[in-house]
Amino acid sequence: MKNKGLKILGAVFAAAGIFMASGWSFFNITVRCKGKKRLIKRKWFQLSHIKINHPRHKFEKEYEEGKAWCRQQHMQDCYMQSREGLRLHASYLPAENARRFVLLSHGYKGSGFGDFAGISRFLHEHHCNLLFIDQRCCGKSEGKYITFGAREQYDVQRWAYYIALRNKNRLPIYLYGESMGAASVLMASGHRLPGAVKGIIADCGFCSMKSQIRDMAANWFHLHWVGLLLIRLELFCRLLAGFHMSDADTTKALETNRIPILFFHGAEDTYVNQKNSRYNYAICRAPKEIVVIPKARHLCSAYVEPELYRQKLLDFFASYDQGVSGRCI
Hints:
Blueprint: H1 2-30, H2 36-41, H3 48-52, H4 56-72, E1 76-81, E2 87-93, E3 100-105, H5 112-115, H6 120-125, E4 128-133, H7 152-165, E5 173-178, H8 180-188, E6 197-203, H9 209-220, H10 226-241, H11 251-256, E7 261-266, H12 275-283, E8 288-293, H13 301-304, H14 306-320
Helix pairs in contact: 1-10, 7-8
């Protein structure tokens, strides 16, 4: 009987280990950073969903030209500390006869020069001072975990104040995010922001970490029992990364924010489904506009319809450059 009990106990522990191991694997893939070199070699990142949703898939020439232009500019390195003491980096590119500041918040495991390759030169040539922030774990910024906006929203908030303190000419400030960077600026809108923040631009942002992970698990990896996976992932996020998945959610911010928002999304995006931007738009109580681009994949709207995309940006700036200051509570 004793041996039988030990076998049962061993089987229980083995089953529990296997159960938690799958949650750890997903946490390890999605949240934990292992260094830039290993991230580049990660095989899972070559999934077809990601490849067809990247601008390189159909617009490699334009994408690479945009990145090359960014690298050729003489940018200033900027540093500040996160709430937890991480050293965060950004690259600053001033414009001649600047009319506004634009904070550029890149997406998941991305870079400002890459995610904004299709639009940064246009912004700069239209009198925008640009601050390309490196999200935690990316570029020259420190960090061990990507938190899908749970912590990044406070980094965006701090960078907004960083700009405001150096904004001697009192130029309007815009927060412009793509993918996870878009979710981060939307979440940041629920916090105290400088009065000079006049507008927010969100391209292909998701509405919550839970919904995004659920879509990834079910649609990319064809995993069943996604609810159980989320429970295990939440445990690792809390114990190791120090945040709750529910912290990465745009709902509360958009229900209280009064800063105007311009939403973009690609109609054929299978990385972040357009339902996310439609949900964010629906609950937003501030002045708002949504532009869904037919035939555009993830972050490809600026490539598929460049004239429309750029005109919408210019119209947005024209509407709010001299508008009422954003909410500051």
